[in-house]
Amino acid sequence: MKKTSILLTCLFASTAFAATVNLSSSKYICNGNVITQNTAESTLMTCKNAKKQTSVDVVHNDDHNHVSGGDADQIQDDDVQTKDSVFDKISFVNDNNVQMKCYYKNNKLTKCTK
Q1: Is 3 helix (H, G, I), strand (E, B) or coil?
Q2: Do residues 73 and 39 make contact, with C-beta atoms less than 8 angstroms apart?
Q3: What is the Cα–Cα distance from 44 to 52, expressed in whole angstroms?
Q4: For the range 1-7, what are the long-range contacts, defined as Cβ-Cβ under 8 Å and sequence gap of 24 or more?
C-alpha cells in the first residue's frame, strides 16, 4: 500500500496546480470526439500532440511461510496474491488548443486536468 501511495503521489505531482475538469458538466472535444468518463485511451491517442506515459505498480503479498529444515531455516515466498496496477497519463491538445492530461488506472479514466 505504501508503494501505491508513493507512486500515485509521483504520478499526480505534476498536476498539483492544474485544474481538474468535470467531464459531466463541461464539454471537451478531441479530434471531434467528446471526452467522457468512458473515453478509451486509444481515442485520446489520436488527439493533437498526444503522448502517453505508463507506470506499473506491483504489490506482493508479504505473507512468508517459515519452514525449518536441516541446519538452516528457510523462508518460502508465496506470490499467489500479487496485484498489479497500471497507471497511464496521456497529454494532448484538445480541439480548442487547450493542453490537457488524462489519467487512467487499469484502463479506466480517473480524471482529466487542463
Answers
A1: helix
A2: no
A3: 9
A4: 1/59, 3/57, 3/59, 4/57, 4/59, 4/85, 7/55, 7/57, 7/87
Q: Which has the closest alpha carbon to 85: 60, 58, 66, 103? A: 58
Q: Are 61 and 82 in contact (CB under 8 A)?
A: yes
The predicted-structure confidence for 21-72, as pLDDT tens digits, reads as follows 999 998 999 999 999 999 999 999 999 999 999 999 887 655 555 555 555 5
Secondary structure (3-state) at 8: helix
Q: How far apart are CA 84 and CA 50, in angstroms?
A: 25
Distance CA 89, CA 98 (A): 16
| The Cα angle at residue 35 between residues 33 and 41, in degrees rounded to 5 | 90
- How is residue 44 written as a grid cell? 485520446
